[in-house]
Queue: 2 jobs
Job 1
Amino acid sequence: MQVETCRSFGEKSRVPAISCRWIFPKPADSKAVGELRLATGCARFAAELLVARGFGAPPSAESYLQPRLKSLSDPSLLPAMPAAVDRLLAAIDRKERIALYGDYDVDGVTSLALLSRILRAYGAEPACFLPSRVDEGYGMSPDGVARCVSEHAPQLVVAVDCGTSSVAEIARLAAEGIDVVVLDHHECKTALPVCTALVNPKLGDDFHYLCSVGIVFKLVHALLKRRPIEGVDLRHYLDLVALGTVADLVPLREENRVLVKRGLAQLEQTRWVGLQELIDVSGLRTPLSPANIGFGLGPRLNAAGRLGTAQDALELLLTEDRGRARMLAANLDVEITLGEIDYELLDQHEALQPFGMANPQPLFCARGVTLVAEPRVMKEKHLSLLLRQGGDEYRAVWFGAASQTLPRLPWDIAFHIERNEWQGSVSPQIQIRAVRKAE
């Protein structure tokens, strides 16, 4: 059923009256519904829904209602998967320098965390590289690739959640003698990179619904089938898969449904201290649902990457130090409104002092911010700005930004809160660290 909302104005009121047009689906085939109820014992509404969604056959209905890991298909069915497994095992055996080149959203960060943990279980020591959103942009940009090579001197680069369209960048890596394996789910363009293996479901006939962490799961499944590791149970990693899959908004059907269903159960008993602390600071309680990821855990992990680098989010998923995990979980960018910045918030912020190594100052985010007036230049270097968000206005400073080209309004802003003392009065002050066009 769908509900379409319409607005109309009454003759004596300027308040819009809301009316809805109800759209009902065509009735499901009654014979198919009856047969499905008889075979499965499900309720009438469930049988009607299953038939309408194409799961009228009892075996497919059972798979839908009871997603099981044993129903997952052979990971080698993905394009170029055997070649990717061969190259990674060779790199492990030869103790080559491996760099995992990721993306800064939740799908990218969970992908790197999953692959890094499994490769370390094999005895490898992969470097994890995340580009800077502000300085290097999305994917395998020329600047990002150059920094990755400069910092890690890899012999093998595994591009995760990117790389399908990076023809020139991968060619440059090949010219330097660096092999590349791509694990990506983005659409394929006419020209594809020449690399050791391009594992992208869009090049085949199935698995188009997988995001990158799902592809990484398939890769590590294939690795473990080829070369098992004593004591490593892939089920313990399904929480990372569920987290990235739900946050990336891919369809929760077929194998994604299995991965998320079982991953949510694993998330409730996660082994990773970073996720334990993130769940705690998010105030979530079991049972966990996709909404808890979409509106709780996901935005916290996404915030770091959207405003600069996702390194803190990745470290949170990899650390084994509970104290470090607690600090990282508490200090992932917090989204607030300008109206929430008051003396009480300043006092609570001050209580977190002193800031420094292992206790960084919280970085806040406010979205959809506009300007009341043109920024004022101070001492030829800095900007003084009067911000507006909704009905709230707040003055801010941005040091060293006088020469910057500002994006179009409205903005999302990343900022610190400082204590401002002037002529005997104390007030909170916004100190901007970065701005971007609002998303």
Job 2
Amino acid sequence: MWLNDYHIDGIRIDGVASMLYLDYGKQPGTWTPNMYGGNENLDAIEFLKTMNKYIAKRGDGCFTIAEESSGWFGVTAADNDDPLMFTYKQNNCWTKDFLEFMGTDPLFRKGEYDKLTYGMLYNYGEDFMLSLNHDDFREKAFVDMVSGSDEKAHLSDIKAALGFMYAHPGSKMFAAGQDAGLEKFMSELNKFYAKNAALYELDNDPDGFMWLENSNPEETVIAMQRADSKGNKLVIAVNFTPVRRKITDFTLMCVESIMKYLTVSGRSSVETRRLMDRLSNQIMMVMIWNILILHFLDFHLLYITVNRIHSLNSRKSLY
């Protein structure tokens, strides 16, 4: 009925772990093992597989999401031999780390810096969905979880958080109503996300992601490169402190992109090789679009394309 009559886009099943295990939440001696002597609920497992296969077979774009907290291997099809066949697994660990980081005073976020990077250590084990849903906001709304000494700083912190979430590999789910006061920014962010395949096409492929800065807790700056299957690249840098940064503070090197830029800009192969030889010996403080010198001012979120540096906050080209 839900699919045929209401044409829903997706189904999220909560508490999947309680379905998968016969002893879930039960005391020893109060449950009966399966026919093989294990604690897996074979009937529930088969039901979930059948349901997901049926929905996928319809071919109408409907997807399924599992909220599974036990660490069951093979919730989605990603590199798993006998998966439950959910389209996505809700990444509860990422959500917990992310909200703890954003809830920390910016002056002390450097001590929580690893919470921003930990998710990539297991990212390719499942097809993950990054979620900020109603379960996460029972005590506080999202806008009340972040910091900021004044309204401008508060909004900048929110925008930095959402920008990082959208740049990070994994599909996105954001609770309705938590964008109050941010509707315009969210609209622009969603349009930008949909327009740039580099932000989603290779979420589950290592070729689609590379850290450019993931070891700078002192300044609490983080940067990554995303790519799509056509080789288009996008670099995202986020400053999670309200401190102004000077133009010479940060330099990110993207050698492959530099080579591509120099080629399409008409430089000869000899000129290209000479410049690359120089780059291999020193960090050049020059602005060739993909030698990225990030200029942090009063905004928090930057994204860089092959020939421009932009701010999603101001929506102005900076260079």
